[in-house]
Each structure stands twice: as C-alpha cells, then as structure tokens.
Amino acid sequence: MKMKKKNSTTLFINTLIFFSLIQFQTSLSLSDSSTSFPKEALPTKSGYLPISPTSTSSIFYTFYEAKNSTSPLSQTPLLIWLQGGPGCSSMVGNFYELGPYLITNSLTLQPNHASWNRIFGLLFLDNPIGTGFSVASTLQEIPTDQTAVAEHLFAAITRFVKLDPVFKHRPIYITGESYAGKYVPAIGYYILEKNAKLKDFERVNLAGVAIGNGLTDPVTQMVTHADNAYYVGLINERQKNELVKAQVEAVELVERRNWSEATDARNRVLNLLQNMTGLATLYDYSRKIPYEDYLVAKFLNIDEVRKALGVNVDESFVYEKCSHVVGAALHADLMKSVKYMVEKLLKEGMRVLLYQGQRDLRVGVVQVEAWVKTMKWEGIVEYVNAEREIWKVNGEVAGYVQKWKSFTNVVVLGGGHLLPTDQPLNSQAMIEDWVLEKEKVDNGPWGSRESVASEARHTLLNCVTKEIDFFFCCDLLNIRDFVKKESFEKDQSESGSAISLNYADTSSSNYFTIAVLRTYKDFDDMGDAQIVLLAQAITMYECINDYYI
C-alpha cells in the first residue's frame, strides 16, 4: 500500500518521537508479552552436536548467519567462537561480547552493531562437554587434556558442516579468548592432522585461527607478572621480589611435572598480585568494577530464553557461566604448553592472529610477547624484526600491528581481557580486516579502515543527497531483514517511476521519518551507537516508504 506524504507538522512530531524513543527501541525486553524472545534476536540455528555415535554427550551451539555478506553465502567465511575458563560458556561471548544481541543490566536484549556476524557467519560452541548447556553423559567423558578437547570439537564441527550443504566449502576461522589460547591451537592442530589422512571432500576447510588474550605457553607467560606490574608502577621492589619468589615455586613444580600443584601455584601468584595492587580486576587495570558477565547466567536461567534458544535441559538445571566440574577436570592441564601446536600451524602456512587488549594484566601484551619470541618457527627472526605499524580506525589510533607471512600480532588500545566488550567497533574492524586480508589491497596494516559508525554516516549522507540508489542504501545498512524481498514491485505512473512494497510489520517504530536527518545535521556531536541507530532507523523508513521526501 502506498503511504501518503506527511505534512511538516507530522514530520516535526516524528522528529521528537525518534529522539525520545531511540533508546527504548534498541532494547528488546523479555517481559514484554508482544516480543517474548524477539524473533530478531533468535539464532539462525541452535541445538546440539553429538560428539560420538556411541555417546549421548553433545556440544550446544548457536549459529548466526551473516547479516550482510559481501560474497556468495557458499563462500562467506564462518567464524567459530570458543570461550576460555577452562569451563566457561561461549554464551558469554554471544550475549556479552560479540554476538548480534547483547544483554543489558535490566536483562533486556540490545542490538550489537559491532557484532562479528556483520559479514561473516558466527558459530558459538559451549566447549568442552559439561560447559554451559553442553551435555556430558558421564563425568569420565569430560576432557582432561587438549587432545580430548580437540577430538570432541572436531566431531562437533564436522557434524555442523553437514547440517546444510551451503556450509561445506565455506572457509572456517576458529577464534576464542583466554584459556581458548589452548583450545584454538589444539583444534587447529588436530584438524591439520586429520585432514592429512582424509579425502578432499571429508576435510574441514580451516582457513585460520585467532586468539585473543590467550593462555598458550603458561609458564613463560606466568613469570612475566612481577616485572610487568613493577615497571608500570603497580607494585614496589619488595613486592616484586615476593612475586618473583612465588613465580619460581610455580616453575619448579612444572619442571617436576606436578601439574595440578603448578596450577595452584600460578593461582597464588595471581591472587598475590591482585591483593598487592588492590585493583577491581586484573583483567582490565582501568576498571572500577569487574566485568558484569554474571548477567549472562541470570539471563540464561530464564525459562523463556532457554526455550527460544532450543535448550533441552531439565527445569531444575542451573546454567553456570563457568563450570567448576569442567574446570576441575582440566585443572592439571592448565600449565601445559601448546606452543608447539601454534608452531605447527605456522609451519604449515596456516594464518594465525594473536590479539591483546592493552590493559589486561593476566594474559595481556607482555605475557603474549614473552612466548611468541621463543617460538621455533623459521619466520620468527623476520617477525621480531618486522616493522610495528600504527593501526587507525576512523582516523584515530586503534592499536599496533606486527606481522610476517601468515602470522599477525595486534595490540588493541583501550581494551582489556574481554576485548569485544571494551572496544566493540575496533575489534569488529580487526577481525573483519584480518579475515579479508585487507593489508593486501590497502596501504598500511589494514588500510584506512573506517568504523561502522563512520561508514554509516558516509552512506547516510549519500542516501540523503540521492547520490546512490536507495535500495542499495537499504542493503548497505543491513535493513533488508526488515522487509520481504519478494514483495518489491515496480509501479509505473504518469508522474514517473515509483517503487512500492508490502511490509509485514506495521509497528510504530518503523515509521521514523527521514526529516530527522534533514533537521539534525551535526552528526559529529553524536556517539557511535547513536549514529548507527540513526542511520538504520532512517534508512528503514526509506525502505518502507519507498520514495524520497
């Protein structure tokens, strides 16, 4: 149905409505009976992936297809996210860090315009079994080392790829953070070993691995804490010496292969550092309060949420952000190094990205640099001597990039352990540009990348000045999901060509007018999130009303 053009009074009213409701419209409440678990926030697929035909154990997953793929779907990269812990659920990454919808303090869902599925498919796996909503049929099946972890992950990934023929040839990038600094190399290494024995059509199409603030070579990383804290002014020399003594005790236990005791000793080092500094959290020394990822457990213990996600557990089941049972199973594994697995990946020419939020004191820049330079890899000398380039996003310094051949290491400014939470747009820019190998087509480490907000501003201005086709505007700002593609019709009339469409949802939030933009020109005074929301809301109006005012 063709919508009638609004008069100036109506346009002014719509302008006021937009700014008064913009924040309200971005949060989707579970308590609102009209939304329940909003369909916009539902995964493309979710459920369970068996790890063996002889076991009832399975890995829970949620998958979100790319919002706006830049390539045919059959070629669109697929990112797999693994949380750390050990035993922490990847639903933390999903709903607190980098998924398409994030939890607010009021347990509502808010669109994440810096999600990692903007142009890639994104798969979250609750790993290992027994973690999050994943099922361990017996305690004995829960992995106690990285080989078992990798075996289960390989089974889950191959099972997932078979769910849809379109997944078969998509390049897979395995990503994760923290203790996933062990999971990610382990599954990457395992895939290389398995692929060498499989026929072409049976192989996993692994294209690269990415590790954020990862624990990979624990001993080398652990012995950096005293010097790191001392030289940034957090402890004095007496305290440093006390920390060094505690670190030496942990090293000696590793040398004696007393793995469980060595893990306990590392924990004592970190607890000592925490007490000495008095910081709210070692995960980000600038924070006044710890990360609020406990909200994930509150959210996922709501029955309605579980049903929406396809969770199949007893009503008495209590979701835990991190499983103490899984943590205990892998306790003795924690101090064992998987550096040799990273070396193997690099020797095979596999692309490897390491990235660290600069403000993490537990597994941050210093800890990662310490083990990287000890790698036995033919390119390590060239890497160490490679130029460290300044990386900018939207004209501002976002961090630093150092690379050689297939190995890239990134330091991201202004971020801590949970980097996508701290620097959402920059972490999105980082992963997208790395996967797409932007350094091969642009100047600098990844070219002159603009943030999502900056891109939205530029696109919006072009849409308003009619420099580009408005259907293209809809696509650029990911608004196609709001309309039915099959409903587009071309309608020729005496006054010229017009476009009309039938719209499925006639809620008031879809009738914001483009007059808002015309009456509010100073975009630079608006925050990134507001710019993106403004661009989407106004372009949504354009797509629905199908004519220019």
**Gap between N and C termini:** 17 Å
What portion of the residues fall into strands of 2 or more residues? 15-25%
CATH architecture of the largest domain: 3-Layer(aba) Sandwich
Our Rg estimate from Cα atoms comes to 25 Å
How many helices does DSSP assign?
20
Share of helical residues = 25-40%
The low-confidence parts are: 1-35, 476-524, 541-549
* Shape verdict: globular
Summarize the structure.
The chain has 549 residues and is of the alpha/beta class. It is 38% helix and 15% strand.
Describe it for me?
The chain contains 20 helices and 15 strands. It has two domains: 118 residues, no CATH class; 297 residues, 3-Layer(aba) Sandwich (Rossmann fold). The N terminus and C terminus are likely disordered. It is of the alpha/beta class. A ten-stranded mixed sheet has the order 2-3-7-4-8-9-10-13-12-11, with helices on both faces. It is found in: Secreted. Its EC number is 3.4.16.-. InterPro entries: AB_hydrolase_fold, Peptidase_S10, Ser_caboxypep_ser_AS. It is an enzyme of class 3 (hydrolase).
